[in-house]
Specification:
CATH superfamily of the largest domain in chain A: GntR ligand-binding domain-like
Strand content of chain A: under 5%
Shape of chain A: globular
Oligomer: homodimer
CATH class of the largest domain in chain A: Mainly Alpha
Chain lengths: ~240, ~240
DNA sequence: ACACCATAAATTGTATACAAAACTTAGGCG
DNA sequence: CGCCTAAGTTTTGTATACAATTTATGGTGT
């Protein structure tokens, strides 16, 4: 459906975009990682022109921060930004669920259940990266049930940025959604209890948010240390 | 606050972006208008590199459609996309209003009233472009009351795309919000009746949507004619 | 006269070169 | 000993050249 036809060239920039997007969302590129154009263009075997195009797209989605004359780096969501993102997700995703009055096709519910099962399996086998990715896909597919492409794309972008938040503020344990909560939402939808599903989603997203550690963000530590080193000049910098 | 400091260069691409954005939202560039890179770069006195950067940003926001090897043109929102955009606005903007529990500072309410007044004045004097723009600004400022920057930016992008929808499907009369409805929302907020404001906003957005003419979109006409000409080859094409 | 094909013009895709800015490192001064 | 300054290096910003693709044009055959 979203794949190219047979004879169409593979769209180099799309491939690079997908690679970088995945690398960021899967925490292979941690927040704050610098993304020099030369390095990327050499790695992917293209010119800086193509790399810049991809970086600008990622910047537009909030996954990459670009400062003039200072290059690109993986975005480091601030605490305020993180809270805003989750607040917006609550409004959007709950609103989407609340609007689903028509009975959901059984096939769609089934594929959602399969997604939750895969997520559960990944979590059980300790595959944290897959678990987070599948959890995100669940939220996106849920939004897609509305048939509203604009809304679905917005949720997808917020989910991607949430991966950055988890990478920055997530505690090693219990960051991912408990699969049972996802299952509960499907059950409520199967019962056509849209309001119930929305209410449950509200709690679910709040639960995720509460599981984050706003106090000890990993990357702020570096900034703090740098500030300490700059201030306490009498101390040993080495 | 958001302006550059004194000695900082004016950021050429930002200026070009602002110009194009305004031209599209003010319907100076109608949906479907082709945007050749050469023409733009000549007009603005920069190279295609800068123009492409701006076009990609506009494409990311949905104001411009870029097809591979086929260039950019002002986006022509389909009926489905238009409905999705308004549905998403209902969820986002009503959700934003519903979450405002704290009493709104009087100063902010005052500046909102000023905005409505300016919009009213523009409409009364037949200045349709200003009226639409000020109406959009009202919706954006309303979202900004949440303090949620992520949400505000999303609303701003949806409002911009709504300008395209109005340009495509808007009837010559009665496309803009009745200013009294905007005033009513402010009154409800002043009374701290968040739920009431949200309900009113829901109706308000539905009213706008109902005022559009989905039957006779101006630019679909060309497509229809093209299809007719291609099919009825025996008929008179001239 | 219409459809079809070849050629020409226009437009986009990509790479590269050079200029400008920021970062790094080494040296001198207080 | 630390800070400030300055050349050198790295990295980004922009323009331009060339290749690839699409679109427009004109000619030819039926």
């Amino acid at each position: 459906m979203n794949k190219n036809a047979s004879a169409v060239p593979p769209e180099k920039d799309e491939v690079i975009y997908a690679h970088l997007h995945a690398a960021i969302c899967d925490s292979k590129l941690l927040p704050g990682t610098r993304l020099p154009e030369d390095t990327l263009s050499a790695s992917f075997g293209v010119s800086r022109t193509v790399v810049r195009k991809v970086l600008q797209r990622l910047a537009c989605e909030g996954l990459v921060a670009m400062r003039p004359n200072r290059g690109a780096q993986v975005a480091e969501p601030s605490v305020n930004e993180a809270r805003d993102i989750f607040a917006t997700r609550r409004i959007l995703e709950c609103g989407a669920l609340a609007e689903m009055q028509n009975p959901i096709p059984a096939a769609k519910l089934e594929s959602l259940r399969a997604l939750v099962e895969a997520e559960d399996a990944a979590q059980m086998s300790g595959n944290r990266v897959d678990a987070i990715r599948l959890s995100g896909e669940f939220h996106i597919e849920l939004a897609a049930l509305t048939g509203n492409l604009v809304l679905t794309e917005m949720v997808a972008k917020l989910v991607a940025r949430s991966s950055l938040i988890i990478a920055t503020y997530g505690s090693p344990i219990a960051v991912v959604c408990r699969h049972s909560e996802h299952e509960q939402i499907i059950d409520l939808l199967a019962r056509s209890d849209a309001a119930g599903a929305a209410a449950w989603m509200q709690e679910h997203l709040l639960t995720i948010e509460r599981g984050l550690r706003w106090e000890h963000p990993a990357s702020d530590l570096q900034e703090v240390l740098r500030g300490v080193m700059a201030n306490a000049r009498g101390g040993k910098a080495d």
